Amino acid sequence: MPKLTVFAASSPAPTYDRPRPERLVAGNPLRTTWEHFLSTTGDLSAGVWACEPGAWNIAFAPGKDEFFCVIDGRIRITDSTGAAAEFGPGQAGIIPSGFTGRFEVLESVRKYYVLVERAA
Q1: What's the distance, CA 70 to chain centroid?
Q2: Which of 29, 61, 98, 109 is the most buried (most CB within 10 A)?
Q3: DSSP, residue by residue, 71-104
Q4: What domains can be seen in the chain, in order of their start residue?
């Protein structure tokens, strides 16, 4: 029987990465991910993500959507037309499939995330 995932009751090992050099805009921020849940089919994952200040270009693949809610810190996401939105503690958003733009960490951030990846 599947078990309930309780973030506060688990301590997944962190994984670390940095933006790809060709996408980097400012800084070279360390990104840390604690994946608390991965579906048996691999198309849904959820956890906590943290990052140092910096900026990079993003391009979401077709079929990939992300819901997020900032726990602490501040980010700005700007789309390819220049429209920008900032998010701070308690604020949430969705980065949709096919989105292109810039992701900026204005203040060291931690956020909850849910990623859905399905065939495009």
Answers
A1: 10
A2: 109
A3: EEEEEEEEETTS-EEEE-TT-EEEE-TT-EEEEE
A4: 14-117 (2.60.120.10)
Contact 65, 116 (CB under 8 A): yes
- Maximal C-alpha separation, the chain: 47
38: Cβ contacts below 8 Å, ≥ 6 apart: 44, 45
Chain segment 13-69, per-residue pLDDT in tens: 999 999 999 999 999 999 999 999 999 999 999 999 999 999 999 999 999 999 999
Q: What is the per-residue pLDDT for 1? A: 80
Mean pLDDT of 68-90: 98
DSSP-derived pairing of the beta strands 44-51 and 15-17: unpaired
Q: Are 85 and 93 spatial neighbours (Cβ–Cβ below 8 Å)?
A: yes
